[in-house]
Design a protein that fits this description.
The complex is a heterodimer of chains A (about 200) and B (about 100).
Chain A (H helix, E strand, L loop, with lengths): L1 H26 L2 H17 L10 H19 L17 E4 L2 E4 L15 H12 L3 H12 L4 H8 L3 H23 L3 H7 L9
Antiparallel strand pairs in A: 1-2
Chain B lengths: L2 H11 L2 H14 L5 H12 L2 H19 L11 H19 L4
Helix pairs in contact in B: 2-3, 2-4
The chains are: A mainly alpha (about 200), B mainly alpha (about 100).
Chain lengths: ~200, ~100
């Protein structure tokens, strides 16, 4: 029995944190995220015999968590569904010394393999948190949990093509926020004050 | 040339190929494109500094998302919740042991 408890603690410790994080970003409420994590684990233990391929436990658990999130959201407020258009993420261009250049930050300023700076993490928190739900869920599954396109499609009840389209737009939106941060908030400020970025394609 | 005219001119500097690269970039980074499309994109990107710059910028964004860890962690499990989950876990283990080999 001691072995059981050890395996249980390891399983619960690992998946509870992951489900909580996903649910917190999707539901926006700590209390809801705690409930979703607990309900998901309970349901996973109770219906474990339905898992046909044990190596696919992560997508299986996330599918349960996603359904639990949807149930929570039905009980609370529906967020408006915004569509992200590809065009809004085309960066502006400028000509400098006869060369056409993109108006984007030098991305060598982004931390690469090193630990993410706290400030950058806040920007990423906000950038992901502000994505419309349909895009956020795809980005969390594909780029944060690193599930495959097929697994993400299964978790979210989407076709692989829709997963690919949404992932690209979500990444572009996050890239744009990071770019604004790296450029010292000038673009964000211009938008907040009603300024327009010219030259979008 | 005023700013609007300049802006229109810059739009024309972005070729249709750049826009195609822009629309397929995540599939390219995910290695989810057919080889011939991938080769076409690489040929264009190799000769187009703005596309190189944008590709690198999106690649870094994806890397950051891979490194992204939660800021918030759940509160420690309460004793009664842990007991409820452990009970369900043990029942699951028992039912698995009773399955025919």
């Amino acid at each position: 029995m001691a072995g059981d408890a050890e395996a249980f603690d390891s399983f619960v410790g690992h998946f509870r944190a992951k489900i909580f994080h996903y649910s917190w970003l999707m539901c926006g409420q700590r209390e809801d995220a705690e409930d979703v994590a607990q309900d998901t684990l309970l349901k996973a233990f109770e219906s474990f015999d339905q898992l046909r391929e044990p190596e696919r436990i992560r997508p299986w658990i996330f599918r349960i968590a996603r359904n639990a999130c949807l149930m929570k959201r039905r009980k609370s407020v529906f967020a408006p569904q915004n569509e992200l258009s590809l065009d809004e993420f085309l960066p502006a261009m400028e000509r400098e010394a006869g060369q056409v250049k993109l108006q984007i930050a030098d991305c060598s300023g982004l931390p690469d393999q090193s630990l993410m700076r706290a400030e950058m993490k806040d920007v990423l928190d906000r950038a992901i948190g502000e994505l419309p739900e349909a895009y956020k869920s795809v980005l969390l599954m594909r780029d944060v949990e690193e599930l495959s396109t097929q697994e993400t499609a299964h978790v979210l009840d989407l076709t692989p093509d829709v997963v690919k389209t949404r992932l690209h737009r979500a990444r572009l939106a996050v890239r744009q926020k990071l770019d604004e941060y790296l450029r010292g908030g000038a673009v964000a400020l211009a938008r907040q004050t009603g300024g327009r970025q010219d030259g979008r394609g | 040339m005023d700013a609007d005219e300049q802006s229109r001119g810059f739009k024309h500097d972005r070729s249709e190929k750049c826009k195609e690269v822009f629309s397929l970039l995540s599939d390219y980074l995910n290695l989810e494109l057919p080889p011939e499309t991938c080769a076409e994109m690489e040929a264009h990107i190799g000769a187009c500094p703005p596309c190189v710059e944008f590709t690198e910028s999106l690649r870094k964004t994806v890397e950051l998302c891979h490194q992204y860890k939660p800021s918030e962690m759940p509160a420690p499990l309460g004793a009664s919740t842990r007991e409820q989950l452990l009970d369900a876990y043990r029942k699951m283990m028992e039912s698995r042991k009773s399955l025919p080999a």
